[in-house]
Amino acid sequence: MPPTRISYLGKSWPIDDFVAACLSGECSFPATIAATIIQNLQRYDNHQTISGSQLHQECDYKALLERTLDYTKEITDLWPASFRGANVHGLLETCRDDPRFNGWLFEQRFFAVLTPVGEIYPLREILNSVPDWEFFEEMCHNLRQDGCIILSGALDALDTMNGIGHDYKTKSKVGSYTEVSESWLHQMSEYTFLARLHGYKVNGFRITVMDATSAVVLEVQLPIEELWVQDYLIPRARKLAKHQEFMTEEILAVNDGILEPPQGFPEPIINYLCSGENREGKIYCPVRDQCIKWRKNG
Ligand code: SF4
């Protein structure tokens, strides 16, 4: 869930009022950049699906709190992700109409259904014939009622002739990015699996990590698909779907104001997002102040 409030220089505003505050001069952050960041935050937030970036998370409790509590984000912390989004989108827009990229797909989102008995089938045909998000949301809701799980993944680019997928990541400095992280590996494996499921050839994946002045390309060594699907994708998707059941109105009401993880939910795990032990030395978890683990540990 996006944050409910946005802060800048020690003051905060409800997310929907932030751009107006920038336009009126009440907040000195540039209004155009604020509008881009907030639009990017609110662009796609489909609670019905499990996406590639959710497949590998350091702490599932963080996701629960973000969906349960009102929380505030500093606008300058949101900029890197929006910068990436704007960069990648601009880059792909340029290539989309270029005939030299014939046979490439850009920003293609794939959906698939995992049934209770472990079968997985593609959903794209249905989407193509009915490009109506309200209908889609309802369809996902009904499938979930039947015990199905909806998987989704959006590839930045796919060269369908050569079967090479491309992903672009913007970082403040590329220097320390010398290998593909575990979470990126799972993300690219999910994209590969979904694209193949929809009939596309994928032989490999390349991640371009870029900063303002340089870029590095990392080749992804994809795992053996069948083993990855059985040993990782299906169990992990089922676990996440179970966690999503906690994120319902009923649970929110019962747990109102109580930040203990509900029974059956995994313990919070202190990690680089909240310990400050990361490349930037920053606290990335926006719900750390409300996290039981940090309250207990002081
Ligand atoms: S502060 Fe750390 S342990 Fe707590 S929810 Fe955030 S990431 Fe998880």
Hetero groups in this structure are: iron/sulfur cluster
3D shape: globular
Helix content: 40-55%
Estimate the strand proportion: 15-25%
Count of β-strands: 10
Order of helices and strands: EEHHEHHEHEEHHEEHEEHHHH
Largest sheet: 7 strands, mixed
* Measured distance between first and last alpha carbons: 26 Å
What class would the helix/strand composition place it in? alpha/beta
What's the architecture of the domain at 46-74 and 102-257, going by CATH? Alpha-Beta Complex
> What is the CATH third-level topology name of the domain at 46-74 and 102-257?
Lambda Exonuclease, Chain A
Which class of the domain at 46-74 and 102-257 in CATH terms?
Answer: Alpha Beta
Q: What is the count of DSSP helices, taking H or I runs of 4+ residues?
A: 12
Poorly predicted ranges:
none
Mean pLDDT: 84
Gyration radius, rounded: 20 Å
Write the layout of secondary structure elements.
Elements: E1 5-8, E2 11-14, H1 18-24, H2 31-42, E3 49-51, H3 52-55, H4 60-68, E4 72-74, H5 75-96, E5 104-114, E6 120-122, H6 124-129, H7 133-145, E7 149-159, E8 164-170, H8 182-197, E9 204-210, E10 215-220, H9 225-245, H10 249-254, H11 272-275, H12 292-297
Parallel strand pairs: 1-4, 3-7, 8-9
Antiparallel strand pairs: 1-2, 5-6, 5-7, 7-8, 9-10
Helix pairs in contact: 1-2, 2-5
The chain binds iron/sulfur cluster (SF4).
